[in-house]
Specification:
100 residues; 7 strands; alpha+beta; extended
Amino acid sequence: MIYQLALMLMLSPDGANETRQEAPVTRPNVLVPIVKATKSQPIDKSLQQLLDEGYSITSMSAGIGFIGFVLNQNKSWIICTIVNSEKSDNSVGSNCASLN
């Protein structure tokens, strides 16, 4: 679930600012809740900078080609994704956004 949120917020240029609600999907004895839009604000800091500032990773999720992290410090919540670099030097890139 976290990787879906991270993907929506990081990879969609204005996915974070859309207000969208989907109708519940029902299956026998299963109810999927309505999706609530969550606003985020991109920040100009890397995952490494945030960790150096004292943020802690509270959870992570992996997807194809990326890893998503949720960070916290004193009620400040940030999500970051890291993706493989196209360079061959074993480096990665990161995108981060504040949730509050």
